[in-house]
Design a protein that fits this description.
By secondary structure, the protein is mainly α. The chain is built from 15 helices and two strands.
Length: 327
């Protein structure tokens, strides 16, 4: 007892000494962070800001990509927005890009949310194996994916066409890539398959961050798995869904390779799958709207499309911050 009282007395004296000792504030200068930020700022400026500034500059010129550029001011933007044939193609490409995004996003979430939920209920060992399998489509180059699906879906000679002919199944012979009504949705579903792995991993990570106490309380209240998924899980992972939406918007406005492989430079029958990237390619290198390449005009299309995509992505970030869930 005596030793315990002595130890308690010494502890109180020690705390009193610490409390009476004046604390010296450490003055941290913001300049100390400059050496650490310089590499990041230099990389960002060299590979993002500088190319964008050059793109804005060339969008104000008449340039074929090789010879000297002639400054024309805002004439390229006037040609795109004035209501002519190029203007119609530009706004149609914007609409197709938004439709492409909508199909990819809905299809990805329709499959991704249930699969990610099942993964969250599985064992960690099974999660590692399945997570690796789901990421396989993401690492396959889009050109390879496009050629593989073209072998199956090519109108008149694809694997599904031959199978439909041999089995007398008419619906398999329908040219999904050769029809104006189905070309864009078909390519969008292929793109959704490619991005499915990333969507599953993002949603699965958001599910693993949900406290188990919440799910256990819901189950104690008698909710089944479907009610738990629809009323509890989906609202709690909304920030992750907005993140996926921002990524899909950026990807949809940059889609080119898979459309070029499956539909060619014309982007499907009647331009039914024409998006901003394919329109840029035709104007810049395909000889459209002039006897020579119109790189300056095509760059103006890219700048406008970039501004439109950034606006949507910024809106998504704002919504995500408002929907942020804190435990």
């Amino acid at each position: 007892m005596v030793e315990a009282s002595q130890a308690a007395s010494a502890n109180r004296k020690y705390k009193a000494i610490i409390a009476s000792t004046p604390r010296r504030r450490v003055q941290r200068s913001p300049l100390r962070a400059v050496p650490w930020l310089l590499p990041v700022v230099a990389f960002y400026g060299l590979f993002l800001l500088l190319p964008f500034a050059l793109a804005v500059r060339y969008s104000l010129t008449r340039w074929d990509g090789v010879g000297p550029a002639t400054f024309v001011g805002l004439r390229n933007y006037e040609a795109i927005l004035s209501g002519g044939s190029l203007s119609n193609e530009f706004f149609l490409a914007i609409l197709h890009s938004l439709m492409f995004f909508g199909i990819v996003y809905v299809a990805s979430l329709f499959v991704g949310i249930p699969v990610a939920y099942c993964l969250s209920q599985a064992s960690p060992r099974l999660n590692r194996w399945l997570g690796t399998i789901y990421l396989v489509p993401l690492v396959i180059p889009p050109l390879v994916v496009g050629y593989i699906f073209l072998l199956f879906l090519e109108p008149g000679s694809g694997v599904t066409y031959d199978l439909g002919q041999n089995l007398h199944l008419g619906f398999l012979t329908y040219p999904v890539l050769g029809s104006a009504a189905t070309a864009l949705p078909t390519i969008a579903l292929i793109a959704a398959w490619m991005s499915m792995g990333l969507v599953i991993i993002i949603i699965w990570a958001a599910l693993m961050a949900i406290p188990t106490e919440i799910l256990e309380a819901v189950r104690l209240d008698g909710a089944n798995r479907m009610q738990e998924l629809r009323r509890i899980v989906v609202p709690l992972v909304r920030p992750a869904l907005i993140t996926i939406a921002v990524l899909e918007v950026i990807g949809s406005f940059a889609t080119f390779d898979i459309i070029y492989v499956t539909e060619g430079i014309t982007a499907g029958p009647g331009g039914s799958a024409d998006v901003l990237a394919t329109l840029f390619y035709r104007v810049a290198f395909g000889g459209a709207y002039g006897s020579s390449n119109q790189v300056g005009l095509a760059t103006a299309i890219v700048v406008l499309g970039f501004a439109f995509a950034v606006s949507i992505a910024t809106l998504g970030v704002i919504v995500q911050r408002r929907w942020r869930v804190e435990w």
